[in-house]
Amino acid sequence: MDKGKLYLIPNTLGDTNPFDVLPSQVKTIIDSLDTFIVENSKAARKFIKSISPEKSQPSLTLFELNKHTQPEDLPNFIKPCLEGKTIGLLSDAGCPGVADPGADIVKLAHQKNIKVIPLVGPSSILLAMMASGMNGQSFAFNGYLPIDKHERKSEIKRLERLSKDYNQSQSFIETPYRNNKLLEDLCNTLSSDCLICVACDITLDSEYIKTQTVLQWKKNSVDLHKRPTLFIIHKA
Amino acid sequence: MDKGKLYLIPNTLGDTNPFDVLPSQVKTIIDSLDTFIVENSKAARKFIKSISPEKSQPSLTLFELNKHTQPEDLPNFIKPCLEGKTIGLLSDAGCPGVADPGADIVKLAHQKNIKVIPLVGPSSILLAMMASGMNGQSFAFNGYLPIDKHERKSEIKRLERLSKDYNQSQSFIETPYRNNKLLEDLCNTLSSDCLICVACDITLDSEYIKTQTVLQWKKNSVDLHKRPTLFIIHKA
């Protein structure tokens, strides 16, 4: 028997028309599937309904993959693939496997020789890099910075050095209610000619993307409180 | 007078139906524009025609941005924005500004306070990361590796160390006719338990994405000759 495949299905980055940010192929694939690995069942059902309103919701099988999931449950989630069924891995927001718990399932799929097919969708990391005007030939996403004041300061310094020594743009994120504090920390820690890109509410109506030097940010800031934001720095 | 905006417009990654990999918003935006910054006029006209067949081709204004473009020409390319016109920056393949010459235009747009709006489309870097099953919480794209044998070897070693010390997946590319040689070099340089993801012909019918250890690649390789490929390594 042929194995099923694992589709990686992106989601929107917030309250926006899904067809503005997802290609029609995403609908075609969701229409064809009845088994999904999801972060949260309720949110997933709502999303699937918005894409495929005609699909029967009671006939869906959903496995929840989130911080409460035990590692020993993962093989059960992809067992349907071994039995010939093609399934979907669906994010709550953005792209599965990137800044998201899905990577463990994908890793397991490779170990079991299951074909993994990623679908195109919005990634705040990629969209911010595109719109930053910084070096897109070499860039890194570093996740969250440390919370401890001294560790954070030395990590910001390290990323600034990396951006200069390797000409590599360095991006990272913060818990949204601490975004203003992070921008302040960046302005107080980086050299005044270091570039900072602030990319906020990406793909939403309130989208705000701006690259300027530390000196310019000090004169001309923005309120990022509770708005999903990606930060990128680069020192020439 | 209000300034125009700069849309960043992705393209397909090769010979595929554009609507399989681009959201409908890309068509809406292309339909609404008549001025584009492009890598190659002929390829751009063909792409625009495939998306907006009803658009008048003679009325398009195209500026060519590629390795032949002089830096002093760039301000002319975004002058229409300063005069109130919204324009598009269009890649030959994938996403503008990422592994692509468009970043210089975006940088200039920020300096001139022109609003930059990135649109969703296929990026081989992001799609490969999603499908690799490696750490997507922290990853870097490093562009091309050095050609010199010794420099290349030491760069591969450096990236392996980085992937381990910072738990950061490390991706890179090669000129497609040298892909097989690079996979060979990786297998001969990395430790036998280091993971390599080979992501080839992404979004095309011939797509091939596989993550396995160096030891497994040595036993079970693949022909990558002249196929666009992204490599990612990670040592646990």
UniProtKB/TrEMBL annotation, chains A, B:
Residue ranges the record marks as coiled coil: none
Species, as recorded: Mesoflavibacter profundi
Gene Ontology MF: a single term: methyltransferase activity
Taxonomy, superkingdom: Bacteria
Protein name as catalogued: SAM-dependent methyltransferase
GO biological process, one term: methylation
Claim: Transferase is one of the keywords in the record: yes
UniProt keyword list: Methyltransferase, Transferase
InterPro entries, per the entry: 4pyrrol_Methylase_sf (IPR035996), 4pyrrole_Mease_sub1 (IPR014777), 4pyrrole_Mease_sub2 (IPR014776), rRNA_ssu_MeTfrase_I (IPR008189)
Gene3D superfamilies reported in the protein's UniProt record: Cobalt-precorrin-4 Transmethylase, Domain 1 (3.40.1010.10), Methyltransferase, Cobalt-precorrin-4 Transmethylase, Domain 2 (3.30.950.10)
